[in-house]
Design a protein that fits this description.
By secondary structure, the protein is an alpha+beta fold. It has two helices and four strands; from the N terminus they run ββββαα. A four-stranded antiparallel β-sheet has the order 1-2-3-4, with helices on one face.
């Protein structure tokens, strides 16, 4: 996962998966949001251990 942008309100990360690109938004208030070009890519990603690990790591980073 690579940090691609950051400002006072949000950090934006990019994560490459086999099925496509996932964008992770980490807001200052601790909220995480995920995006992808295709809903199917995001749906598959949310079922993985990598998704769980990213959530765990980023929610403890703020």
């Amino acid at each position: 996962m690579t940090l691609i942008a950051e400002n006072q309100e949000v950090k934006i990360y990019q994560h490459n998966t086999v099925s496509g690109l996932i964008i992770v938004y980490q807001f200052k208030n601790g909220e995480l949001s995920f995006g992808a070009d295709k809903a199917s890519t995001l749906n598959r990603f949310e079922k993985t251990q990598v998704y769980k690990a990213i959530c765990k790591v980023l929610t403890h980073k703020i």
